[in-house]
Design brief:
There is one protein chain. By secondary structure, the protein is an alpha/beta fold. The chain has three domains: 79 residues, Elongation Factor Tu (Ef-tu), domain 3, CATH 2.40.30.20; 272 residues, 3-Layer(aba) Sandwich (Rossmann fold), CATH 3.40.50; 125 residues, Up-down Bundle (Lysin). It is built from 16 helices and 17 strands. The strands form three sheets. Strands 8, 10, 11, 12, 13, 14, 15, 16 and 17 form a nine-stranded mixed beta sheet that branches. The longest helix has 19 residues.
């Protein structure tokens, strides 16, 4: 069903009013213009020479305009044209497999993109009555997430941690894992180098994930205005698919750099700085963005849009201004620990500091039953490790059992990056783990078990693997099949 906002907001409407202003001054990427008294905030204007700009504010008789392109071609005295156009971008199926900039223009040398519709860039989030409760799991392919910190379609889940702790890798794994599941993915790069973006593109191409993915480029080398608009462009492209009944996953990598960009813009606009020199409306611009995620009711297409905003912190400090803001407006956070990363635990996700506030509402019953005690057992293990300082001498049998148990849990959840694990494989591993069979295995034996056991199970009982996703429950047939394969596996050893 068409999006009602699009029907009521035609981005191509030309108003009767036409104004021509003059550039009074140029401050980096902010231009002060006179002679356009009828401009409104967020409006699109055009400079002499073809460069675009967006109205950001007003000061006495001047209009403050953010340049959306190179400022080198703009000079004092140049004409500025106001045609009454709102800032909108083209949308459509043709964007799949393409890389675009913040104005949805192609950046991949693959020619023009066929797009017959345009959506406004800054749009209202779906209202409460336009949404339904979340009821479908988003399979990320990361074992610890799918088991203990489940994500549902329509959720806003924050990925937070120090730099180089695996945040982007987990987000990309989630994109790779959507192959064949009908989910449209959008990767939005903000403030990163072109080399980093190229690595992402090559990875997605290698894993055949580019065909169902849109890349929005707001890399560090492009003008500040384009970096600022990048997440809104990604969101608007996702809304097209959502209002057409599709499930969408959007990764914002990352909103910390987006905050830095907006701080630069606000300081040049001479807005009053607040905490850490950020403007007072920094909370608003991000909440306006993340609220656009959700699960639509059937009358609006029954589509969904899930957000993975990434935030970078310094030395594990989650109390920073931007991080606390985003924690408060999302549905949970995944915390990446530098200490775990340095110990070789990958992904370096901390059980204790990570939470999914709504994920368990749609988690598979079989997964919920198998993982219900894992968090508690792992936290007890962590506490015991600290108390004993890894010295097992003189420990009680109960303490030794908890240490073995925690070690097995840790090893089961360790996985290589860019190698998503299916829900069926995770269920089999967790079922065996729940029986305590893995507690006495060495690290090398556990690694071999994770590598070989499910392949053996899948070859022996392919029909049972299919039934797992259909029933989403731990039936006696599944238990019997696991027991049979366990006997064969250990006989082979």
């Amino acid at each position: 069903m068409p999006d009602p906002q699009v029907l009521n907001h035609d981005a191509n409407v030309q108003f009767d009013l036409h104004e021509v202003g003059l550039v009074k001054s140029v401050r980096e990427f902010i231009v002060m213009v006179t002679g356009m008294p009828s401009c409104i905030n967020g409006q699109l204007v055009e400079f002499k020479g073809g460069n675009k700009g967006m109205v950001m504010g007003f000061k006495e008789e001047e209009v403050q305009i953010l340049i959306l392109g190179s400022q080198s071609a703009i000079h004092v005295g140049d004409e500025v044209y106001n045609r009454g156009e709102s800032l909108a971008i083209p949308v459509g199926e043709g964007f799949l497999g393409r890389m675009v900039n913040s104005l949805a223009l192609p950046m991949d040398s693959l020619g023009p993109i066929d797009a017959k519709e345009r959506y406004p860039l800054f749009r209202d989030a779906p209202g409460v009555m336009d949404r339904i409760p979340v009821n479908k799991t988003l399979e990320t392919g990361t074992k610890i997430l799918d088991a203990v910190i489940p994500i549902v379609k329509g959720q806003r889940q924050l990925l937070i941690g120090d730099r180089i702790t695996g945040k982007t890798s987990v987000a990309l794994d989630a994109i790779i894992n959507q192959k064949g599941k009908g989910v449209v993915c959008i990767y939005c790069c903000i403030g990163k180098t072109y080399a980093n973006l190229l690595k992402v593109i090559n990875l997605l191409r290698e894993r055949d994930a580019l065909d169902y993915t849109v890349i929005v480029s707001g890399i560090a080398s492009v003008p500040v205005g384009e970096q600022y608009l990048a997440p809104y462009t990604a969101c608007t492209l996702g809304e097209y698919f959502m209002y057409h009944g599709r499930d969408v996953l959007v990764v914002f990598d990352d909103l910390t750099k987006h905050s830095w960009v907006y701080r630069q813009i606000s300081l040049l606009l001479e807005r009053a700085p607040g905490r850490e020199a950020y403007p007072g409306d920094i909370f608003y611009i991000h909440s306006q963005l993340v609220e656009r995620a959700g699960y639509l009711k059937p009358e609006l297409g029954n589509g969904s849009m899930t957000f993975f905003p990434i935030v970078e912190i310094l030395q594990g400090d989650v109390t920073g201004f931007i991080s606390t803001n985003l924690i408060s407006m999302t549905d949970g956070q995944i915390y990446f620990s530098t200490a775990l990363f340095n110990k070789g635990v990958r992904p370096s996700i901390d059980f204790g500091l990570s939470v999914s506030r709504i994920g368990n509402k749609a988690q598979w019953p079989i997964m919920k039953g198998l993982s219900s005690k894992l968090r508690l057992e792992y936290l007890q293990y962590q506490e015991l490790v600290q108390m004993t300082q890894l010295k097992a001498a003189g420990l009680s049998k109960e303490a030794e059992a908890k240490l073995k148990r925690g070690g097995a849990i840790t090893q089961v959840f360790i996985q290589e990056k860019n190698k998503p694990v299916s829900m069926e494989e995770l269920i089999v591993h967790l079922h065996v783990l729940s029986r305590g069979i893995l507690d006495d295995l060495s690290v090398a034996e556990l690694k071999k078990f994770k590598k070989d056991f499910f392949e053996l199970f899948k070859n022996q009982y392919p029909q049972v693997v299919v039934k797992m996703s259909q029933t989403e429950d731990l039936t006696q047939e599944i238990k019997d099949a696991v027991n049979t394969v366990l006997k064969k596996y250990f006989e082979m050893e």
